[in-house]
Amino acid sequence: MPESAPSESQLPNAPKFHTDRSHYRAALERWMRRAFPSRDGLTVVDIEVPVSTGFSNETVILDAAWTEGGSDLQERFAVRIEPADGGMFPPQTPHCAVSVELQYRAMKAVAEAGAAPVPPLFGYEPDPAVLGAPFFVMGFVDGRIPADVPRYTEAGFVVDEATPEERRRMVLSAIDTIAGIHGMDWREAGLGWLDPSGTGQPTTALQIDLYRHHVRSELAGREHPVLYAALDWLEANDPDDDRVGLTWGDARLGNMILQDYRTAAVLDWEVCALSPTEADMGWWLMFDRMSFDDMGIARLEGYPTRDEMVARYEQASGRAVLDPHYWEVFGAMRFCTIFIRLGDRLTAAGFVPPERNPAVGNQVTAALAVLLGIDNPTPDLLTR
After folding, report:
1. pLDDT digits (tens, 9 = 90+) for 57-91
2. Region 157-383: CATH code
3. Are the C-beta atoms of 349 and 343 separated by less than 8 Å?
């Protein structure tokens, strides 16, 4: 599996939204005054546009001050803005093709169900005239996030500061959180709009078909034998698991805010879906393999083994993990799909020479071939 690729905002010529803080300050101050009419004299007193904001969405952090009930108050917020050139994942449904709208609606459902901790939500703005793209506003949650670069298993607070007991607590709390998401009744939560079938019967086959169409579109006639082999294998070996629920989609520690090594908030819902919930465990296990085995890093003291994590999930969710290998391949297929667009962006930005063909020849393709037990005819050029 690969180390994390550069984020979009790390690319030298990557498309950007407005990065002028005065633009953000004025526009968001006007929006927040309308959203919070009882907060007298609301003013944005500080604003940050982080240098690295992930693959998909622009994130803005701001502090607002106001007077309410005779008291002077101040609070921090985070704003997630739709990317100018589309997200990294295929849309789940035409009924909600805007990534930040999907995230907002899914997080709202999770919060209302009490299924998992998410940041407090303060509103979704569909009108692109405000900031140049739709966005939503949420509360800023203090805490620590395990880093992707460098990987939290090789450097940073998880390695240098956490005790074995804290590492174990961190992972088991995360697993419990994932199980809580899966315990939601998606129909009662009003998540039918997320159903790609439109019939109330979302299936694995629908997800495979969705990704197959997306892959064809992204490749635009280029060959990708490993990825197509994975799609064929997944279709032929579909376990026909009917335990469908809301899946977070990007289930990993790097998308969790921790407080005292417990999950305080779950972030990055842009790839959530209605699918067999074991898909999240496959993604989790894929990143676990990526963060230890494939980087040649010994498992940290106190860090649960893969078998222990599966057992904890089964205990917390009341669901048996029936086919973890299938869902790990499914996760690697999805990750490989993301790398098509990412590779094209790396090339277009001049970050990687075109002859390296990073959309196809990359570490994720190599890892997917290993999981499938097949030869990889596309060399892993990013490591040269």
Report:
1. 689 999 999 998 889 999 999 999 998 776 778 88
2. 3.90.1200.10
3. no
